[in-house]
Amino acid sequence: MNSAKGALDNLRVIDATQMLAGPIAGTRLGDLGADVIKIEPPVNGEFNRTRGFEDRQSNGEMTTFLAVNRNKRSLSIDLKSAEGKEVLYELVKKSDVFLQNFRFGTADRLGIGYADLKKINPKIVYCSISGYGSTGPYRDRPGQDLIVQGYSGSMFSVGAIGDDPTPSALWGADVMTGYQAVIGILAAIESRHQTGTGQHVEIDMLSVVMDCQLQEIVTFLNTDRMPTRMEERSAHASIPAPYGVYKTKDAWLTLAMVPLSILGEVLDNDFLRTLTHYNDGHKHRDEIYKLIRHSFQEKTTAEWIEICDRVGAWCGPVYDYEALVKDPHIIETKYIWEQPQLRGGSAKTVRPPVRLSDTPPTIRRGAPALGEHTKEILIDLLGMPATKVEELIKSGAVGTVKE
């Protein structure tokens, strides 16, 4: 065991997350030295302890759980009990960070929302990870990697001309959301050094995936040019059916980890209703995909979403960038911002994905023109005489913006 001092070993983190985005954030903080205490419900623990890639295990533990939960201590608490909550409250008094990825409103209902924990420890940095944030029409929708990929427009940036929308085999939305959560937490910790108080950090997956496509989306926003796919080519090899993208009557639909018995209700299929075990989606994989591949073409995407939402089947549309920027959630929650630029006044961009309640991110400068701030930096920051700066410019040692 390596006992070397870590950069964050003065921090204690309560990790009340499951699956991937939250746990990887906790793991990253733990890797940097933080004492990470993972909060799990009794009996089965968090999701990945009992459900993994084809139930693959190492020494009795799911490999998916092992992958994103190192550098942690596990504390099993029933947060629905008064006694369990009191244990957590005592732990909050001795901690620096609280990390959660419950569905919207769940933490508040449990009495462990930011307002609750701030009363116990005003210094707590509270990080909420969600699919779409705490405002807007989609705040109650499930946030899952594949569904967010569909919303974000990214599936039309890969694959060949004529291909179906192509999901990424990487868990990019989840993993990058975890990384952004770490950035937000560390920013809030630094702010606490200056103010003495914590704050609420919010990270949503859709913001993160849009931020990861800054070049593509900014190009589209400012030139109307869509990504063009070339002539040269299951959403993920380890996830059970029906995980994938399906053609509908008018567009496309994503289905995430939908229990097959629930999918049987969606499609009114008795065979699917009989498949009640999580691993049935692996065992009958080819049969299921063959069965349902064309089943969604009789209704529109909106109609299927309404049906799926009614029975709790995780789904979503597949957007290109044009549909994405017209979406009511994107508009209402102001995902698209303006950034200043030297020529042209401003350019459209995607807002920063990290939200801090007390020190929110801002866009104060756009991307600078070459040498735009050379004189400003040399004169104002370094204190060089203007005549010296002109000499440096004339000699070619430094450059300034060309008019």
TrEMBL record:
Keyword Chaperone: no
Domain of life: Bacteria
Matching InterPro entries: CoA-transferase_III_domain, CoA-Trfase_fam_III, CoA-Trfase_III_dom3_sf, CoA-Trfase_III_dom_1_sf
SUPFAM superfamilies: CoA-transferase family III (CaiB/BaiF) (SSF89796)
Chain coiled-coil ranges: none
Annotated segments matching region Disordered: 346-367
Protein name per Swiss-Prot or TrEMBL: CoA-transferase family III protein
Species in which this protein is naturally found: Candidatus Planktophila versatilis
